[in-house]
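Standup notes
- HV: blocked on the assembly model, inputs below
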Amino acid sequence: MNLGSSTEGKHTTFPLIDTDVHERFASIEQLLPYMKEPFRSYMSNWTGWGELKYTHPIGGSRLDALLPNGAVPGSDYDVLREQLLDRYDMKYAMLTGLFYPATMEAQFELAAALASAYNDWMIEHWLERDERFLGSIHVAPQMVETAVREIERLADHPRIVQVLLPIGTAPYGDPHYHPIFEAAERHNLVVAMHQGNSVQSPFGTPRYYIEWHIVLSQAFMSMAVNLIMNGVFDKYPRTRIAMLEGGFSWVPSLMWRMDQNYKSLRMEVPWVKRMPSDYIKTHFRFATQPIEDPSPADMLKMVELMGSDELLLFSTDYPHWDFDSPERSLPTSFPDSLKRKIFYENARDFYQLT
Amino acid sequence: MNLGSSTEGKHTTFPLIDTDVHERFASIEQLLPYMKEPFRSYMSNWTGWGELKYTHPIGGSRLDALLPNGAVPGSDYDVLREQLLDRYDMKYAMLTGLFYPATMEAQFELAAALASAYNDWMIEHWLERDERFLGSIHVAPQMVETAVREIERLADHPRIVQVLLPIGTAPYGDPHYHPIFEAAERHNLVVAMHQGNSVQSPFGTPRYYIEWHIVLSQAFMSMAVNLIMNGVFDKYPRTRIAMLEGGFSWVPSLMWRMDQNYKSLRMEVPWVKRMPSDYIKTHFRFATQPIEDPSPADMLKMVELMGSDELLLFSTDYPHWDFDSPERSLPTSFPDSLKRKIFYENARDFYQLT
């Protein structure tokens, strides 16, 4: 919500885990050394992977993350370390990239080659550079079997903790995508879902960025319903879903609505064995950024309505314009035990970190 | 949520307004006398207007509303009067039909002719039969100017209180549709929005009815955002929107998210002059059915988080399977003053009834 100013001190005495940090390449050419032919040649005429449809009204990144050399914010390890890792004394920062081959609408083999190259680049240039980084496997879910092979290839890396699926127009709960969850479960990886550029409203493409940026949380709601009602958690009971940058204050309402419908209509989905809210509480976690700012008392009420203090994971979304500083993200009036869980313990437990 | 059993007594001592009652025709042939050529001839080969894509797992209507003659539930005035109007001593029941020319994807002139015929049939067979009925003007918003003419034609009827727009795939906030809001405002009519058959998730058509029935509330959220960010309430400041059968427990979360985004990004939509939550509280009301059933204390907390006790309107959705009985809809532990507002006063004030 707000940037911390540089004159502020350390946020709290709690350790921190940041579950959404966007490391970037300065240029896609940095991936070329990790690509084989024929895909490397494709890149001489690279046209992008479905860019965001909007010009950002106020710029997409923190102004202080713009680099002196004009490079992309988030692309310089030293700056990121200074602005994020050291400044807040972070125990772990989960690298989620900003990378959308998963939403390419054509040339899926190229998408898979890009994902693979990115993963190798990320491991070499980020993950192996700082022990505080934890990594995500990017895949091209357009080709499920290829995505599974990419998961197999990298799952054993000791600091790879999750598979990242951007939320776009693909309903990942549908059986077509199930092998990805099977592979993630088998390798004890979380499946992280982060907004992608191609999110739509039920009416298609909103006219304005502000409208799009508001309604994209509804794609997260639809995804949660889609995963639960298509039986992902019954089929793969150790599946863990981290929802990143989709908000969380909608969770109580959605749990109520799902439970109410399940009570009446469960005969249609007999493979769904438990109350939908049980799946939410067991299998889902929600990153806090961009945290909303009602009164602290109202926000605390909403967290209480979630029925568990274990569902929220702290995130900053560094280096983006709506970065949530650890110093200002959670209301100071939240109980210390809750802050400790959100800033650290919930992520530690969900990701099984030590 | 639950049907009242016939052994129960009267619900409360409060008067009632039911804001969502589905009067139906027993057969679409009942509209023929109200149609002119060439459209009347089209109906000899009527193929429907985009039916619901799902077989209803447990049947779409209350079992006790099935008529002995096999006719469509909601199609018999005497049964409706007995099961709803007299049983609960209703002061008003708002007729919303179950009628989807608004979502026809072709032959829009036929859609408009059907809407017009329906309106005439509804006025003659329902509205003029019982003083407790209040009526909705159905239109075909596919042709905005024609829709405006239909509003003009019927707006002066003393018991017509609103224009009904089904929520489907059309973003009614977009400027293309603004003349409808202009006409409604000029005639001091509410614009009611009710779910339509064609609601989609951000991923298209959900595989199951239960999934669809859960996610359709997200189309209401998207519509609220679409109306506000496209400046409908700044352009037509007396516009009033009644959202029917879309739920309400999502309203606090959406208000927070809209306000947060507005604080950062309002420069993109300079015609939006006030905080989005102000528009919600001033211009929107939400019908209660299908009310969810968390603990009464949790539901009361959520209503408090709406920041106003004037936003909810009672509705039953008669004669559908998920009918909310006035006897069981609101938690009995709700304060009497709140129950009185929801059951009666809020609708009376919003619809300017006496």
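- HV (later): unblocked. The radius of gyration of chain B is 20 Å. DSSP finds eleven helices and eight strands in chain B.
- Next: hand off to the docking folks.
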